[in-house]
TrEMBL record:
Keyword vocabulary terms for this entry: Methyltransferase, S-adenosyl-L-methionine, Transferase
Entry EC no(s): 2.1.1.297
Record InterPro entries: DNA_methylase_N6_adenine_CS, HemK-like, N5-glutamine_MTase, PrmC_N, RF_methyltr_PrmC, SAM-dependent_MTases_sf, Small_mtfrase_dom
Binding site for S-adenosyl-L-methionine: G121, T122, G123, S124, G125, D144, W172, N188
UniProt source species: Sedimenticola selenatireducens
Role played: Methylates the class 1 translation termination release factors RF1/PrfA and RF2/PrfB on the glutamine residue of the universally conserved GGQ motif.
Residue ranges of every copy of the Methyltransferase small domain listed in the record: 106-196
Catalytic reactions of this protein: L-glutaminyl-[peptide chain release factor] + S-adenosyl-L-methionine = N(5)-methyl-L-glutaminyl-[peptide chain release factor] + S-adenosyl-L-homocysteine + H(+)
CDD domains, per database record: AdoMet_MTases
SUPFAM superfamilies linked to this entry: S-adenosyl-L-methionine-dependent methyltransferases (SSF53335)
Family: Belongs to the protein N5-glutamine methyltransferase family. PrmC subfamily.
Record-linked NCBIfam families: hemK_fam (TIGR00536), RF_mod_PrmC (TIGR03534)
Protein name: Release factor glutamine methyltransferase
Signal sequence segment: none
Length: 289
């Protein structure tokens, strides 16, 4: 990919769209990232010329996008719950559908002025950050097994000036202390089956595979979360888990087999099963206290 002479903003965007068929919003996001300016600047100064380094950087980013690398990794940024979040290849890219998990959590927290909430497998910290912003009286615990992911989450919490989140490194419930109880435990765990052909599409080859896959049926980590959560839930505490669109029935069954109460599956805006929640099993049956 080459360009003859210095490019103006409008010419650079035209090159990205006409020659490389990059959608306009993606081209604008990449160019604004290179120029370190808001997107509105591109409209206000269309004839501004790029420097040699800026032009090279923009063309390189277009090539990388052509190869399928996610836009969020190219810019290092993704918006979630209207919050600007830093992302890297060490973290999953937050998806809009995961905002349903935040909505469900906030609904359950409505009647609780203070609450302890654990976000297990926090990645970039998107879920914990959204809940902390909306429920500043809550105490949040954000955990991940990846030190690199926790570093990204910590950076996001500091940028957003969120001081009610404690970061911990650990695998699922092992990151919670013995006897520690939460009003709400939630997670967007890996739930794609190993070898699923979707892993080769839509930018997924660039995302951390350990944060995507979980056993031959994709339910390995979900089983563990459901089995291990009760001792860490308060008597009226809830577990909420995001899962695949075809896993609702299987996840409800796992909740039911473990004795959870008030089990329900919530659908996203496209009417696809997206998350399932359940209330802690009764103490006299499971003897957790």
């Amino acid at each position: 990919m080459t360009a003859d002479g210095p490019l103006s903003i409008v010419a650079a965007l035209r090159l990205a769209g006409q020659t490389h068929r990059l959608p306009p919003l993606e081209a604008q996001a990449l160019l604004a990232h290179v120029l370190q300016c808001p997107r509105s600047h591109l409209y206000a100064w269309p004839e501004q010329h790029l420097s040699g380094d800026q032009q090279t950087d923009f063309l390189v980013l277009i090539e990388r996008r052509d190869r399928g690398e996610p836009l969020a990794y190219l810019t290092g940024y993704r918006e979630f719950w209207s919050l600007p979040l830093r992302v890297t290849p060490d973290t999953l890219i937050p998806r809009p559908e995961t905002e349903l998990l935040v909505e469900c959590a906030l609904e359950l927290l409505k009647q609780r002025e203070s609450a302890t909430v654990a976000d297990l497998g926090t990645g970039s910290g998107a879920i914990a950050a959204a809940i902390a912003c909306e429920h500043p009286q809550a105490r949040l615990i954000a955990t991940d097994i990846s030190a690199a992911a926790l570093a990204v989450a910590e950076s996001n919490f500091q940028t957003l000036q969120l001081h009610n989140i404690e970061l911990r490194r650990g695998s699922w419930m092992a990151s919670l202390k013995t006897g520690e109880r939460c009003d709400l435990i939630l997670s967007n765990p890996p739930y794609v089956a190993e070898g699923d052909p979707h892993l080769q599409r839509d930018g997924l080859p660039w995302e951390p595979v350990t944060a995507l896959t979980s056993g031959p049926d994709g339910l390995g980590d979900i089983r563990k979360l459901i089995a291990d959560a009760p001792p860490h839930l308060r008597p009226e505490g809830w577990l909420i888990i995001e899962h695949g669109l075809d896993q609702g029935s299987a996840v409800r069954q796992l909740f039911s087999q473990a004795g959870y109460r008030a089990i329900s599956t919530h659908q996203d805006l496209e009417l696809r099963d997206r998350l399932t929640k359940g209330k802690r099993p009764v103490d006299d049956v499971n003897n957790f206290d």
